Amino acid sequence: MMEFLVFSLAAILTLPVPVVLIFYMFARKFKRHKWKAIHQTANFTAPIFILSVHVLLLVIFDQNFFAFIMIFLLILLGLSLIAQYRKNHDVQIKRALKGFWRVSFLVFTLFYLGLTVYGLVDRLLG
């Protein structure tokens, strides 16, 4: 049972894009609105992409970048709070966290795709 759990977690972290597509199909089936399904998918898969970027950085550079990822996430949260304060002069934590989480999904998806391409090119040329 433990081996199955470890294998499943490794598969999810190694291939998060198919997980996103599968989760979106399920969310789309149970949600009536397309955008609600997209938002739910982004909320669910953001930690998967964050951990996948961490694993890719470990594999490519043989160094632990988890502390840098946490600092980057705190900076993103700070920027989200500042942007909301400048827009509304009132900070709503729930709304700021929601925006932060969605931006994190987008940023780490792009990091994942970029690191995947970089890793493939590095292995092919090196």
TrEMBL record:
Keywords: Membrane, Transmembrane, Transmembrane helix
Transmembrane helix among keywords: yes
InterPro entries linked to this entry: DUF3397, UCP030092
Pfam families for this protein: DUF3397 (PF11877)
Transmembrane spans: 6-26, 38-59, 65-83, 103-121
Region forming the signal peptide: none
Superkingdom classification of source: Bacteria
Stated name of the protein: DUF3397 domain-containing protein
Species whose genome carries this gene: Halobacillus alkaliphilus
